[in-house]
Amino acid sequence: METLKNGLKVGLLTSWKMGKIIFPISFILTIVKETSLMDWFVNLLEPLMSFIGLKGDAAIVLVLGNVLNLYAAIGAMLPMDLTMKEALILAVMLSFSHNLFIETSVATAVGIRASFVVFVRVGFAIISALCLHFFWPGGTEIVHKGIAVAEATNISGLELIKTAIIASALGIYKLVIIVIPLMVVIQFAKDLGWMNYITKFLSPFTKLLGVESKAGVTLAAGLFFGLAFGAGVMIQAVKEDGVSKKDLYLVFLFLVACHAVIEDTLIFIPLGIPVWYLFAIRFFVALIVTCFVARIIGKVSKKSETSLNAEMK
Questions:
Q1: Phi and psi for 57 in degrees, rounded to 5?
Q2: What is the mean pLDDT of residues 172-182?
Q3: What CA–CA distance (Å, rounded) separates 294 from 298?
Q4: Strand boundaries in 20-129, DSSP class E
Q5: By CB distance 3.0 to 4.6 Å, which of 41, 123, 219, 286 could disulfide with 258?
Q6: What is the DSSP letter of 99?
Q7: Helix axes 2-32 and 157-191, enclosed angle (nearest 10)
Q8: Spatial distance between the Cα atoms of 200 and 203, rounded to a whole number of angstroms
Q9: Is 99 in contact with 228 (CB distance < 8 Å)?
Q10: Cα–Cα distances in angstroms (integers) from residue 41 to residues 54, 58, 220, in the given order
């Protein structure tokens, strides 16, 4: 009962925290969308956005997502008409690269260089967007219809404000009905000690990544709770389990691409995005790149060790 109570409390607090960000952003952007300011901004950034298959106003989404968080970015997406391809490109980019300031600070607290985190996350985001844009010919159907206030003629200021309020409130409602149950499940996972079982279960996976099993706690914490929310768990695990620098970088190489897989994936459902595709892209990109880098490090280390032994003889 206490776990359920705590989960609901965390869910409500999280909903309030994201609501304070989403509502004003969605409200302002719904109104700004109908002004000449938005037209000017879109025209300015259109060439850059079109290079990765997006409209100019998508730049706002990417900036908010990276400077603030995913909830702010989704708040900016709510007033937009999005095709499947545009929505998936934005979702994939934001999944790889979001909340850069906070999550990079978390990584440095664990012992990872900030430049490494930013380079990998932004690099994954841009490369994935280019691949989707140039190699996926489909996805032209509209999956999310924004509030089309532009179609109204001579709409009054009060009507526009009313429309913006309704759009913002509806967007928050769609997110809250996902976030609160999610926080309850996460709270149960914490209180029931499922993390130990998850770590044991992940031991074959850590071996595949080329790291020792004791890095499993760090991997599990970031994988399910995210870089920011799982920071305390990860820092403590690194301190207590003595995870090596090499393993730490390999784990974080995987996690910067694929972390908080449940929450960061499910919150895109209200936008009509095929979340299984989103999860698959994040997971397999992280897995392939990490395994590739681990093999290279292994070969370099083995070669260096062989050379050292030869010199000693």
A1: -70, -10
A2: 72
A3: 6
A4: 82-83
A5: 286
A6: S
A7: 150
A8: 5
A9: yes
A10: 14, 10, 41
User: Tens of pLDDT along 262-274?
Assistant: 878 888 887 888 8
The structure tokens listed for 148 are 């089309």
CB neighbour burial string for 72-97, b if at least 16 within 10 angstroms, e if fewer? bbbbbbbbbebbbbbbbbbbbbbbbb
Here the tokens at position 133 are 């844009």
Compute the distance between CA of residue 285 and CA of residue 124 in angstroms, rounded to an integer: 8
Record the tokens describing residue 25, joined without a space.
Answer: 């952003």
Query: How far is residue 165's CA from residue 159's CA, in Å, rounded to a whole number?
Result: 10
| Nearest-angstrom CA–CA distance, 22 and 68 | 11
Residue whose structure tokens are 């929310």: 229
Measure CA 53 to chain center. 19
CA angle (290 as vertex; 285, 292 as ends), nearest 5 = 100
Higher local confidence (pLDDT), 84 or 242: 84
pLDDT for 148 beyond 50:
no
Least confident range of 85-89, 96-100, 266-270 = 266-270
pLDDT at 128: 92
* 160: Cα within 13 Å, side-chain hemisphere: 17
Instruction: Give bridge partners of residue 61 from the DSSP assignment.
Output: none
Q: How far is CA 60 from the centre of its chain?
A: 16
- Determine the pLDDT at residue 150: 39
Size of the chain in residues: 313
Q: To which residue do tokens 């409209």 refer?
A: 55
E strand or H helix at 6: helix 2-32
CB of 125 within 8 A of CB of 100?
no
| pTM as predicted | 0.71
